[in-house]
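Sanity check

After download, print the first record. It should look like this:
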Amino acid sequence: MNKKEKEAFIYPKGSGGFMRPDEVLKNLEIKEGMSIADFGCGAGYFTIPLAKRVGKEGVVYAVDVLESALESVRGRAKMESLLNIQCARANLEKEKGSMIGDGTMDMVILANILFQSKEKHAILKEARRVLKKNGRIVVIEWNDGVSFGPPPASKIPKEELKSTVKDAGFILEKEFNAGESHYGLVFSL
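Expected structure tokens:
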């Protein structure tokens, strides 16, 4: 595999290559043995590096509404011999939609999915339901003023998103740089 093919594999289409997941994940306290849910996982942009970081004793739940996205995750996981990924086709806007047990996750990742939903509170409620008592939620969204990505009306200003997530019962822990076109926020219960 040449360098261009490897980059396309590591940073699949759909991610746009606007973030480097390994760089983003350095901002988070991910340890071996953790249980993490990747809500709206797409082709596994974060799922694959998360699975490597949590190791054989950990688990990553790749959750998406599209079966084609999950097939991509399964294929990539198989190519990299990652056996700690569980895929679930689910509607995160419905009660218990992720099909993950109550209070079982150390962390939930929401990368570039809230801007796509009119039911942000339902998704945040589902994240809250699956988190352990001291669990964290990581939200990554598009910066305002970026000329590409979703239409400007779909982008969620950082301060508005902070307020929305706080209203769902979370406490802001920190902000981090998620690349030139994204911002990252970490919240806890």
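If your output differs, re-run the checksum step. Summary of this record's structure: The two ends are 43 Å apart (CA to CA).
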